[in-house]
Design brief:
Length: about 290
């Protein structure tokens, strides 16, 4: 079953408008559905907490990756599944702070007939659990292509196992009050696994580049010695090591409480530069 609705959005001088209530009023009382909202011409949609707009302009506090011409939301019993504290906002496209005269939201609602005929069940429950998890992943910043690849992957991965376990668990309990918190926890786990996978891929590239570099003739180092006097942050020190590697500095000398090899945080932020840049540690700058 497919329905189309339109929602009139009044103009505003604030550069944004909360249209959540108008959107909810346009939804039919179906048990489970997927609603796709298209923004008025010249505008964008975002799922964010409007309270953050009190901090600063929408263009600064609302990440652009959260803006889009369309937003898809799962619907349960006539109400959309929204991320915690989030509302559906219409934002000006070109200048988020400029006033606009209003427009029309186009709402497309899709629900399979079996979902309309049953409150629970394997088919409807699975589709609804998937929709809840997709919503939580999108709220966490997951790329739509990565989520699609996760759902269609032929080879199992840690992230796909978490996804499948969640869907199987909640397919039989789609109306439980704990569904949305569980979807957020599963999404958090999946996003962590996504980051681990990206870090592993980056490590492979770094190691591969190091192997390639090993076969090249290394240029002589410049006669530049960097002395780090009580630099507390391991992240800053790692950045300095990377810069020293790029500039072919002769040596990096760490002094006092400056983090120095071996240090797990330093190894993580230096990206292998601590292996390629000569370094030593001294108790004081005078001793160095």
């Amino acid at each position: 079953m497919s329905l189309r609705r339109t929602v009139d959005v009044p103009g505003t001088a604030a550069g944004w408008n909360d249209v959540t209530d108008q959107f909810v009023a346009a939804l039919p009382p179906v048990p489970s559905a997927l609603a796709t909202v298209r923004a008025p011409s010249g505008c964008r949609l975002a799922l964010i907490d409007p309270a953050i707009l009190a901090v600063g302009p929408a263009c600064d506090v609302a990440p652009r990756r959260l803006w889009g011409e369309t937003v898809s939301l799962a619907v349960r019993d006539g109400s959309p599944l929204l991320p915690c504290s989030a509302r559906l906002l219409v934002l000006g496209d070109g200048d988020p702070e400029a006033s606009w005269e209003g427009g029309v939201l186009d709402v497309s609602i899709e629900a399979a007939d079996p979902l309309l005929e049953q409150q629970r069940g394997a088919a409807g429950g699975e589709a609804f659990a998937q929709a809840a998890l997709r919503t939580a992943l999108a709220a966490g910043g997951a790329d739509a292509a990565a989520v699609a690849a996760l759902e269609t992957a032929e080879e199992p991965s840690p992230a796909s196992r978490v996804y499948e376990t969640f869907v199987a668990r909640w397919a039989e309990d789609v109306h439980g009050e704990a569904l949305l918190p569980a979807a957020r926890r599963a999404a958090h786990h999946i996003l962590h696994l996504f980051r681990e996978q990206a870090a592993a891929a980056a490590a492979y590239l770094r190691n591969n580049d190091a192997a390639v570099d090993a076969g090249r003739v290394r240029l002589p180092a410049h006669r530049v010695h960097l002395v780090l006097d009580n630099v507390r942050s391991a992240y800053n020190v790692g950045s300095i090591f990377r810069t020293a590697d790029t500039a072919r500095c002769a040596e990096v000398i760490t002094c006092g409480f400056t983090p120095h090899p071996p240090n797990p945080k330093l190894a993580k932020t230096a990206f292998g530069a601590i292996e390629s840049v000569p370094t030593r540690h001294a108790q004081s700058t005078l001793q160095a």
